[in-house]
Design a protein that fits this description.
Family: Belongs to the major facilitator superfamily. Bcr/CmlA family.
Membrane topology: Multi-pass membrane protein
Oligomer: single chain
Protein name: Multidrug effflux MFS transporter
CATH topology: Growth Hormone, Chain: A
Keywords: Cell membrane, Membrane, Transmembrane, Transmembrane helix, Transport
CATH architecture: Up-down Bundle
CATH class: Mainly Alpha
Shape: globular
Distance between the termini: 33 Å
Structural class: mainly alpha
Transmembrane segments: 7-25, 45-64, 76-95, 101-122, 134-156, 162-180, 214-232, 252-272, 279-300, 306-335, 347-364, 370-391
Number of helices: 17
Length: 410
Amino acid sequence: MKEQKNYFILVLVLGALSTISPFSVDMYLPAFPAISENLNTSISNVQLSLTSYLIGIAIGQLFYGPLLDKFGRKKPLYAGLWIYVVASVGCAFTSSVNSLIVMRFIQAVGGCVGMVAAQALVRDLFPVNKIAQALAMLTLVIAVSPMIAPTLGGYLTAHFHWHWMFILLAAICTAIILACKWQLPDGADPDPDLSLRLGRVTRKYLDVLKNKQFLTYILVGGIAGAAPFAYIAGSSDVFINIYGLTATQYGWLFAFLSVAMIGATQLNHVLLNHFSNRTIVITALSYQLVVGLVIITGVGTGVFNVWMLIAMMFIFLTGHGLSVPNAAAISLAPFEKNAGSASAMMGFMRMSFGGLISGLVSIFHNGTAMPMILLMAGCILLAGLVLIHYYHSTGELYTWRKKNSRLSPR
């Protein structure tokens, strides 16, 4: 009983660390129209503050990987989280969209340490055959964020002011720092012999990328995982400005659609008892592509109303809760050492694609839902093509078709 309680607390704290960045994104989405009006700028410029945040996450993770390996998990973790707190206060007092974009970048560079440290600690604290389940549990905790954050952000925007969201984020991060101090194990020991020279760090990342399984599945997970970022970047404009929802209604809608990912992560626990990580990834990508084509056709022909679009988006987003944790588990499986660097590289790829896609949503913004849904479907198609190429080049496509049974990550 005590062991179960400790496991629950550990997953909760690791999930809270992983949630810092998603919460920071989701909370201010309903405020996009209010921010653009208050700062006297366009929606597309406000969307760039999301892009800068995702770029900050991507770049920051590359630095934290080696730091977590050299100094242990705790010291870099605390340093990054305090940077996040200070930058959040800076966002609250910004008076222009340009300063908001810069402060969001700094906020992301600090807060992203939570994601890297959490994934590295999963590799430290759980056996290989339990990584996928642990990551699925983290995904479940993370998936609660879109239920709470945009709804809370909608109410704060409607009844107070969008600046208060960033004060609240600073307070939440401070509470997480205290929880880490009291409840989080130290994880892997520091490696004082590890060099932080740029050349050696670069070679370490290149060594990680030489693992073909790792490279393939971080590409698959990163590209497929970018599809929700297209939805995140474009959905407030689509549902508030095009379909006429209020900020509060949008917050509730975002919470409802997040149930798709939460349900999928729960389903993933059951599926892993019967199918391999690879089988689940292939199946999820396949049906997401079909659903994406249906959405494009429905919106493009004008057949879909807002409720039909919401229903199909719900089905589409379930794939995220299935493909991403399983792709991540396969990616990390080869690494007993350098888990921090591997986790950082995986996060860098994922957020780089997310930042690219969110930026493309802003660039192609045309007052319709098409840029958002085309980019969502395009991400799934590209991820599928990468996986097919890998399977053909290694011969695993034939093996998977022949056996179609549980295959442990190699």
